[in-house]
């Protein structure tokens, strides 16, 4: 999508209650793109606090970003507040208008959806929020990584590493992406086949659905409000 000669400005959005691996997993890849600069941006320069208390210091405020070539939008429980924060959504819309690539991870897709960026786009997100994508006019695709033009979305949490490697390949070629993968020694061999709803033991799936039920319900209510604001007809839930 861009020549190796063009210097790429890569930026990640940060906010409180982020899921840090949605940020740090892709950071491992995107910060190693040849001929690029990586910075993180938030509304203010105060540390953001992830879902488990990890503190992350942004590099700069949103209004200091200038036009970015690649925008990375992570997820996490804090996505709920961001979805109705017009200062962040407006920044995201403006950035997306001039960016080469927009890359969401996990429920970062819902943030992109709230900004109106997913209408008519194929996308994925975390399994617990996958059913909400139509409320943002998106076309849900049940894959770990989905590419639709300059929009790349990754499913839940660790899928962000896979998505970032896809972004690296699109921007700098397969060999560059493979070199980054080798440096990271990214060759997953999970000890269990419990990483998707389809492969997890039924009891584990039921317990996890229960654990996230309140947040899922809250996200659905927010998705309904935003869908109405965007003028999107309620999706068929049958």
Describe the overall structure.
The structure is a single chain. This protein is α/β, with parallel strands linked by helices. 37% of the residues lie in helices and 17% in strands. It has eight helices and eleven strands. A seven-stranded mixed β-sheet has the order 5-2-1-6-7-11-10, with helices on both faces. A hairpin with a 5-residue loop joins strand 3 and strand 4. Helix 1 (20-30) packs parallel to helix 5 (159-172) and helix 5 packs antiparallel against helix 6. The mean pLDDT is 96.
Keywords:
single chain; about 240 residues; alpha/beta; Rossmann fold; two-stranded antiparallel sheet; about 15% strand
What secondary-structure arrangement, pairings included, does this model have?
Blueprint: E1 8-13, H1 20-30, E2 36-42, E3 48-49, E4 55-56, E5 60-61, E6 70-73, H2 79-82, H3 86-98, E7 101-105, H4 108-114, E8 122-123, E9 139-140, E10 145-148, E11 151-154, H5 159-172, H6 174-184, H7 202-211, H8 213-230
Parallel strand pairs: 1-2, 1-6, 2-5, 6-7, 7-11, 8-9
Antiparallel strand pairs: 3-4, 10-11
Largest sheet: 7 strands, mixed
Q: Helix fraction? A: 25-40%
Categorize the overall geometry: globular
User: Can you say what the CATH homologous superfamily is?
Assistant: Class I glutamine amidotransferase (GATase) domain
Average pLDDT rating = 96
Could you state the order of secondary-structure elements as H and E?
A: EHEEEEEHHEHEEEEHHHH
| Number of structural domains | 1
- The portion of residues forming beta strands comes to 15-25%
Query: What is the terminal separation in angstroms?
Result: 39 Å
Q: What top-tier CATH class fits best? A: Alpha Beta
Largest sheet strand order: 5-2-1-6-7-11-10
User: Could you say which structural class the secondary elements and strand pairing correspond to?
Assistant: alpha/beta
**Mind telling me which CATH architecture this is?**
3-Layer(aba) Sandwich
Radius of gyration, in angstroms, nearest whole number? 17 Å
CATH topology: Rossmann fold
Low-confidence stretches: none
Number of continuous helical runs: 8
Number of strands: 11
């Amino acid at each position: 999508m861009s020549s190796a000669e063009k210097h790429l400005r890569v930026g990640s959005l940060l906010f409180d209650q982020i899921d840090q691996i949605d940020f740090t997993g892709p950071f491992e890849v995107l910060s190693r793109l040849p001929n690029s600069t990586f910075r993180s941006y938030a509304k203010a320069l105060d540390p953001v606090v992830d879902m488990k208390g990890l503190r992350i210091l942004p590099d700069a405020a949103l209004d200091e970003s200038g036009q970015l070539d690649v925008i990375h939008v992570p997820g996490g429980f804090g996505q709920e507040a961001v979805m109705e924060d017009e200062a962040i959504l407006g920044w995201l819309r403006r950035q997306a208008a001039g960016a080469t690539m927009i890359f969401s991870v996990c429920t970062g897709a819902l943030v992109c959806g709230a900004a109106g960026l997913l209408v008519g786009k194929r996308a994925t997100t975390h399994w617990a929020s996958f059913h909400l994508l139509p409320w943002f006019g998106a076309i849900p695709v049940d894959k770990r990584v989905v590419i639709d033009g300059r929009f790349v979305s990754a499913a839940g949490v660790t899928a962000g590493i896979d998505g970032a490697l896809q972004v690296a390949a699109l921007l700098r070629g397969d060999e560059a992406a493979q070199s980054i993968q080798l440096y990271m020694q990214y060759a997953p061999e999970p000890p269990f086949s419990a990483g998707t709803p389809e492969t997890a033991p039924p009891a584990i799936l039921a317990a996890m659905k229960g654990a996230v039920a309140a947040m899922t319900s809250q996200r659905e209510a927010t998705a309904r409000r935003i869908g109405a604001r965007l003028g999107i007809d309620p999706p068929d839930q049958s």
